[in-house]
Write a structure and sequence with these properties.
seven-stranded mixed β-sheet, globular, 205 residues, adenine phosphoribosyltransferase activity, alpha/beta, glycosyltransferase, PRTase_dom, Rossmann fold
Length: 205
């Protein structure tokens, strides 16, 4: 019976299904692929259970789930239907109709040897290199009512740039950010320090 599986066991199972690819896309990088886990039906169910359980326990008063473009979309509708609330997307510039508000953000990398996924393009940052990328996130003004309590969800917390921008967007339209919730957190990039909201990750590397 799935209901008898402990949270710790569910987490271990999901972790075991996250594929690791050494030297992808370049030598020295370990790429962790969440899509690998999602091909396993049990991992999908457990991942859903863990995320839903966390929000139910900590934020039973949540009113809206916001997913980040694009892998946050894997989770925002799923969580919203389980929790009985609505969901909305934050998207890259030019994708949303109607009145939108936008925020520009910078992603900056120093001397780290790691892979980051930015705007669906994989950038490899090797030691001593520095790369600054600019992007724009947009949110439909009508998506959030003033004072509405929001959880922001994404697959990965790396440098924290995109989640910081998302938090700013939600607040710009009067939403209250309860938390940024991610599946995977890359601790070495210290993205959590950049965020001015509660942060929770299921899995840390």
């Amino acid at each position: 019976n799935m209901a008898e599986v402990s949270n710790a066991d569910k987490l271990d199972y999901v972790k075991s299904k996250i594929s690791e690819y050494a030297d992808f896309p370049k030598k020295g990088i370990v790429f962790r692929d969440i899509f690998g886990a999602l091909t396993d039906s049990k991992a999908c169910v457990y991942l859903r259970d863990l995320l839903v359980r966390h929000i139910r326990d900590k934020y039973p008063d949540v009113e809206l789930i916001i997913g980040l473009d694009s892998r946050g979309f894997l989770f925002n509708l799923l969580l919203a239907t389980e929790l009985g609330v609505g969901c909305a997307p934050i998207r890259k510039k030019g994708k949303l109709a109607g009145e939108v508000i936008s925020v520009e953000y910078q992603l900056e990398y120093g001397s780290v040897s790691i892979l980051a996924n930015v705007s669906n393009v994989e950038y490899t940052i090797l030691s001593y290199s520095k790369l600054v990328l600019q992007d724009v996130f947009e949110l439909q003004r009508a998506a959030i009512k003033p004072g509405q309590k929001v959880v922001i969800v994404d697959d990965l917390l790396a440098t924290g740039g995109s989640l910081l921008a998302a938090t700013a967007l939600v607040r710009k339209v009067g939403g209250v950010v309860l938390e940024s919730l991610v599946v995977i957190e890359l601790l070495g990039l210290e993205g959590r320090k950049k965020l001015d909201c509660n942060v929770h990750s299921l899995i840390q590397y």
